[in-house]
Amino acid sequence: MNQEQGILLESGTNEVEIVEFHAGGSYYGINVIKVKEIIMPVPVTAIPHAHPYIEGIIQLRGEVLPVVNLRKVLGQQVQMGENDKFIVTEFNQQKIVFHVDSVTKIHRFSWGQIEKPSEMYTGASSHITGVIKNGGDMILMLDFEKIIAEINPQTSIRVEDVKKLGKRERSNKRILIAEDSGLLRGLLHDTLLEAGYEKIEFFENGKEAYDYLVGIAESGKNVTDEVQLVITDIEMPLMDGHHLTKKIKQSSELNVLPVIIFSSLITDTLRHKGEMVGADAQISKPEINQLILSIDEHVL
């Protein structure tokens, strides 16, 4: 798939293209930006004592890649079908193949159409980050970063890494963070606390974060007295991080705030999207040390 084509050539539109696929009886979605290609299944080499989600490894154009069976992730019985596909992905600076039942089509949605799932029907440990109503059907957005963190915690944010930076006194600085993943919010809280940043305000999507900042401005307060820095993910229901950054930078009252984009989608080929909306820095997950150093540089 050519990631440079499609609706996302323009940044900050609050739109997303997703690949819809079928696995274990439901329809799911993955951001097109994460998809390198979709291929027919090839022979998989099983790995002894591998994580239960791992089906094995394959060789693709000289690269050895792990294959994650999404039926195993979803707690479904594993079975092969004639329409099975391998979705080859790249995010968090790594390539991973996901085995799914079928791939149906590519959709274009606004992030405003993607609703945050309720823990009442998903549970706190769910892999679902968003729900899209598509006619009479529903498409569930999966938290692929969480799936990979469960397979290999070493690929996630680790508090131990921050300790290497040494102690610093930053407790008077207040940071606003927009991040839809509960797992990542917890990890960011712990790592920033270890780095000396104690005043952290979390929001589950860009819209809530933006409304909060607008509320400060409309109250007559100086925004930089209340918040010194904004950190945002890119993929979030209601309002994505590119659109949030764009709205902040276009606001005469908010544009003095530094904005750091912290996302698994930061790559050399996609970095220009953050630059187009005015991000002050872009750090790829899970490079927490680089994030802390960037915060130190940009915090007012």
UniProtKB/TrEMBL annotation:
Ranges where the CheW-like domain occurs: 15-153
A biological process from GO: chemotaxis
Residue intervals of the Response regulatory domain: 174-300
Modified residues (4-aspartylphosphate): D233
Superkingdom as given in the UniProt entry: Bacteria
Gene3D superfamilies: 3.40.50.2300, CheA-289, Domain 4 (2.40.50.180), SH3 Domains (2.30.30.40)
PROSITE patterns given in the database record: CHEW, RESPONSE_REGULATORY
Keywords in alphabetical order: Phosphoprotein
Pfam families linked to this entry: CheW (PF01584), Response_reg (PF00072)
Protein name: Chemotaxis protein CheV
Taxonomic lineage from the root: Bacteria, Bacillati, Bacillota, Bacilli, Bacillales
